[in-house]
Amino acid sequence: MEVNNKKSQEEIQLPEKLLKNLSFNQKRIIEELAKHPEGMFSRHLSHRTGISNKSDTIKHHVRELLAKYDLEVRTKRIPEKAQWLWSLNYISSGEQQC
Amino acid sequence: MTGTADTAPKVNKIQTNYTTLDYQEVVFRANQYGWPSIVTNFNTPHDCLTGKKTVCPLCGEKKFRFKLNSDGNCRYICICTGSKYRDGFSLIAEINSIDNKSAFKAVAEFLGLNNSTKKPINELGLNNNIEEYRRKQKALEQERQAKIVSDKDAGEAHAKAVMTNCEMGEHQDFIRKGYKHEVLINKKPYQIPYQRTNEKGTVENKTQIVPVGAAVLPIRDIDNPSRIISFQFISPHIDTRTGKHTKLMLVDSITAGFCVIHGDDALPYIAVAEGYRTSLSINVSLGCTVAVLFDANGIKSRTKRIKELFPSKEILVCGDNDKGQNDQKAAHTAAFHTKSKAIIPLNSGTDWDDYRCDYGEDYLRAEINRQITELSFKPVEIKSSITGISANSSILLASGDGFSFADALINHTGKHCICPISGEKAIINAGSIYCYETRQVITPIIASLYDAELVAKYKKLTSTKKRLKELSDNSDPKNVYAFTTALSHRVGADIPSSRFKDWLYLKSQVVAPDEIINFIQCLSRARINQSKNLIALDPKRFKNRIHLKQKNGLLDWLNGVEKAKSGGFKVVAVKAQHGQGKSQDFMKQMFNHALGLGGAVAIAHRRKLVTQLADVLECIHYQDDSDYISYAGGVKNLACCLHSFKHEKFLNHLVNSHSIFIDEASQALKAFYTDSNIEKGLAKKFSESAKHAQCVYLLDADLTENDIKRWASLLGVNEDEILVITAEPPVRDFTVNLTCTASLKYFKTSIVESIKQDLILGVPCVLAVESEAAARSIHKYFKERFPDKKIVLLSGKLPAGEIDPFIENIQVKMASTDLLIHTSVIGTGVSIQHANKRFKKGYGLFTGSILSATESLQMLRRCRDVNSWEVTLLCRPAEMFMTSFYKDIGSIELSKVLILDEVKSSVLMEREQNKSLFIHAFRNLLEEYSIKLIEHCDLPEYGIDGLVPSSELNEEDIKDLLKAKPCSLDKAEQARQRGYKDREEMLNSKSAILANHYKISRIGVEEAELECIPVLRHSAIKMEIVVSLLRGDKGATVKELLISAGISLNLFKKQRLTQEQIKALRDGIASKCAELFRLGLIKERYVKQEKIPEETPIKFIKEVLVSWGLMVETWRGRANDRERQLEISVPTPLARRLNLDTKTEKEVLQEKALKLRSEGLGYGLIAKELGLKDKHQARRLLET
Edge to edge, what strands does the sheet with A83-90 contain? Predict the structure, then answer.
């Protein structure tokens, strides 16, 4: 039977070394985003992780650390939903940077 | 997805693309996998791995030995290796004739560790990634900066172009609000083209138009104030939708600038405000220069810059009081970092411009000046260890957000902050801040009203009455403030917090200023918020949690059971209320599950509970089968008490069990440290043994977050290994009637009065008392007054032989009891229930000095039939101070030096907290259990409008009640039960209820008076009781007793009592005075016969009859007549209500005579028929 399969892409595999260097909250956000490579709306991400200050949590050094493993967190404003779309992507996948 | 970083790597783990082949990891996993099977896989003969000397597979000599170490690692030795030990990789390499590196790779591949699809990237490559990322970011940043510069340039060009067309003039928006302020007005339409991408992704060209007549407000660059980089314009037309002038910023421009409204430069301060009009209101009222910021973002940095621009001036940050508190937060943060002052308007959801519109310029000036002076006060030393600072001061939390002191106390209890005095680390408590470094307590004060001498004076006075008297004499704000500080700890307990103003006015006719009211509410709300910690369990704090739902009125345990059975949790905490199947459903299933896995123990802290558990779980009871346990040793299923663990064999049993079930876990934990019967250090022994169990189940109806954490730390369990199961509470219809009092005389509490009534009327009831001494004295009190009733006292001081049999047979024993007074002897595990629901009323008397709020509620709930309680909470003012918290923080400090038992100190500290926050916690608990709470205070049920003196209040009430439009009875009843919304609803409902009560269509003056005058209302109730007793509602004996005392229904008629009748009545009452007192019909002071006046009883009789609701007046037959008579009449509403026959003999005669007259009889015949003296008498009768 076809189960509701919304996920078009596979989960992003995260290196353990990266996770080891993240705090609890940072890890939660990154792990959640890795599960949803198509991206998540800000409020869904907050709901899943219980973290409201996401931008503050994903600090500059976290972004650098992600860049080390060819990853980056992208945020994009979706005006019709009045939400920010968060996603974790490979830098090499080559989309515009935000 | 890989697992979390701290879990041990496993062989069958899914691998990530990025893990490099780490030597240590491969070795670790190979050790885990087992070397013998690895080496045999790589062609090593199995025979040589025995550990003994065997033939070497390499050289053929019998000198080979293969050895396994305890950590799983292997070594081999042979003469061919030069009699040196080598590892497994080299063995594989030698046998297969490959080099060590390939052997290592082969092993890694065998273990599934080598991911050949992606080449492992080395650390250097990864670091290059970072460098590249940094370069990219830098380029982006440069791009952003360039855009800012270009935006600024474009904005400057537009601003210059617009401003050339502008002239100074007034704008309608400012005129409308009453400002005479000239701004730049645009005289020529100006268009700004710009581009936007629409939803479809196509670029559209748009234009912004600055219309003629728009006010143009230039925005200056914060880095270069001479440069104008943008502008805001206010449309000359009012938007029909919002009813305001539209305000717009120049499109695509940098608005993070400021503009200045110039004022008096001589003033020592300048203000920073958000929004032009708000700034204008400050400028107009204070006359100072104002820096206008156009949005709240980045206030902190811009305020810092403004401080640099005006180095000699002090900064006032004028924030808005928005509902979300973001603006206040920003203002306070900015103020803290620039060492300036934040002033916020008092009303929520307003800014300073609103304040000016509502109250006028003078009040605005007064309020701002008040706040400035308030903040100008330096910290006041209250005691050597306590410092007071203004409640408006800015406090910086550890998170970096600024708050006012008051906000921090209310909303951020338990968080860390920066001490506003020393700048060191500090913690926020309910009502104060404690600095760890300086060991100082900082409390909020209203600095402008604080007068140390006055406060000391009020604190010295011993009673509230004396303080109120002192306050009535001097009622200036300083005195009011001193009075409130002396009483502040009791507000919210026995003094109503939400209506403190009304309370103070009723007691002393003094009106408290708003700032004092705010201050008082801040303190009481801080306490309420802190008390929530004592009872609350927020499952969101735990990673693994399940919330069970009700299904058809029953709790559905399936989810919880499945999750718990799936394993992986060291601690399973279950919070469900009594009767939801905690032990019957969940525990039983899990117990049986655990039996299959290796044994289970159920533990409780009371013997009675253990017995119950043993029955439910059908397991071995440690007392019944004690011999069996000692013989067999390895019992698989056992229920035992905490006390048993002093025996080694029980501890051993714990070690061998798969699961441990702890019922009433919160109380068990408390028992470890506070129960004197439990030996010291048992907690440690217990936890050591319990650590061996696979899973520990904590079950309690009142499990709190703190308790779970304490158990976890006691058992050494991670937070990830805890599963929290919470349950949806059942729908219950319970009511608690709550009174709080500071008086320590039990006999003056309202519940003692209510119990008396119940005893007289023969209603069986239960009283739960916290303290032993109180229970005994109340028992004695009722025993003396009601010798014929069966009153049972159950307390811990009774000989042990008496308590246990009673509790065991409690159902039977209680069937004949009229009043049961019990202490915490009857606690969890005991329940009293009768088929005929005998007990309908429950009472409680608690102080919080021994029991916690949850325990108190548990005590009340012992009688399962009862669903309405009357509870009195006695607060000991001395214990309501928060000093105990400081002691606790002291212990945290101490623990750095000495090794303290953390769990023990937190349990003991919670007990201290409980004393001061007991009443708040009790209220919160009732809310959590969704029990309806009815609170009693001396105040009228509605807010006092305009605060009128209490004596006038009744008159007004009566008038209003008469004017009220009665609603339907159903509605009125509903409103009464849920509590009235406003005064109007109360009046309408009351009017309807009263009309129904007194059996009329609409109430009149008499009914209104009966309702509104407390004395009359009280006596109306008395009359109802007397009449019902006389009608034999409570048995013939009571009726006979009353009649023998000369009281009959004939008394409730309109009549005159002569001196003789009065004397006879007096004698009658005197002969039965003790009984009448017990029935509550006469006052206590007449309980002895000799106390009733003999010579002139008229005063006494009048008093008694008035108290029974009769209208009594003294009457003299003739002037100068010595004999005084009592003229009695029954108020018509009461007569109607009680169906009293109030006709006098004369009236009866008159009726008969009228009837005869209508039949056509003459006076003479009528006189003869009615037995009158002569026809004249009959004529007089008919004519009057």
Answer: A40-41, A83-90, A71-78
Tokens standing for residue B393: 């001061």
Among A11, A27, A50, select the one facing B540 at the smallest CB separation: A50
Instruction: For chain A, list residues whose CB is within 8 angstroms of any CB belonging to chain B.
Output: 11, 13-20, 27, 31, 34-35, 50, 63-65, 67-70, 72, 79-80, 91, 97
The pLDDT score that the predictor gives to residue B217 is: 92
pLDDT in tens, B1000-1044: 888 888 888 877 777 787 788 888 888 888 888 777 778 888 888
Give the H/E segment covering residue A86.
strand A83-90
The partner residue sitting opposite A14, judged by closest CB among B1, B132, B199, is: B1
Q: Which runs of consecutive H residues, i.e. helices, occur in B750-861?
A: 750-760, 772-785, 800-808, 810-814, 853-860
d(CA B985, CA B1003): 16
CA distance B353 to B484: 32
* Chain B nearest CA to A1, separation (Å): 25
Mean of the per-residue pLDDT values of chain B:
80
Put simply, the answer to whether B136 touches A97 (Cβ < 8 Å) is yes
d(CA B1104, CA B1057): 14
A14/B2 CB distance under 8 A? yes
Q: What is the ipTM of this complex?
A: 0.79
Q: What is the pLDDT of residues A71-82, one digit of tens each?
A: 889 999 888 888
Tokens of B650: 């029980």
Q: Which of B576, B595, B567 is nearest to B721 (CA)?
A: B567
User: B1046: closest CA among B1090, B1103, B1104?
Assistant: B1104
* pLDDT recorded at residue B215: 92
Residue of B nearest to A91 (CA): B133
Residue B182 region by backbone torsions, left for phi larger than 0, else alpha for psi between -120 and 50, else beta: beta
Check A17 against B18: CB less than 8 A apart: yes
Put simply, the answer to whether A68 touches B129 (Cβ < 8 Å) is: yes
What is the predicted pLDDT for the residue at B884? Answer: 42
CA B491/CA B485 separation, integer angstroms = 10
Is residue B133 less than 8 Å (CB to CB) from chain A? yes
In the DSSP assignment, the letter for residue B491 is: B
Note if the pTM is more than 0.80.
Answer: no
A55: distance to nearest CA of chain B, Å? 15
Size of interface A-B (CB pairs under 8 A): 57
Backbone angles phi, psi at B235, to 5 degrees: -60, 145
* CB-CB under 8 Å, B2 with A16: yes
pLDDT beneath 50: ranges in chain B: 1-19, 116-119, 631-632, 883-887, 894, 898, 941-952
> How far does A8 lie from chain B, in Å, by closest CA?
16
For residue A12, the distance in angstroms to the closest alpha carbon of chain B comes to 7
Q: In angstroms, what CA-CA distances link B1097 with B548, B692, B1070, B1101, B1112?
A: 70, 83, 11, 6, 14
How far does the CA of residue B254 sit from the closest CA of chain A (Å)?
19
Beta-strand relationship, B314-318 and B341-343: parallel
Condensed to tens digits (0 to 9), the pLDDT of residues A30-47 reads 999 998 888 999 999 999
Q: Name the phi and psi angles at B247, rounded to 5.
A: -115, 130
Note the pLDDT of residue A42.
93
Predicted confidence at residue B234, as pLDDT, reads 92
Interface test with A, best of B133, B326, B544 (most A CBs within 10 A): B133
Taking alpha carbons only, the member of B171, B167, B194 closest to residue B181 is B171
Cβ of A70 within 8 Å of Cβ of B130? The answer is no
User: What residues contact B254, with CB distance under 8 A and at least 6 apart?
Assistant: B148, B151, B152, B155, B221, B229, B230
Q: Are strands B722-727 and B637-641 parallel, antiparallel or unpaired?
A: unpaired
Q: Do A31 and B1 touch (CB under 8 A)?
A: yes
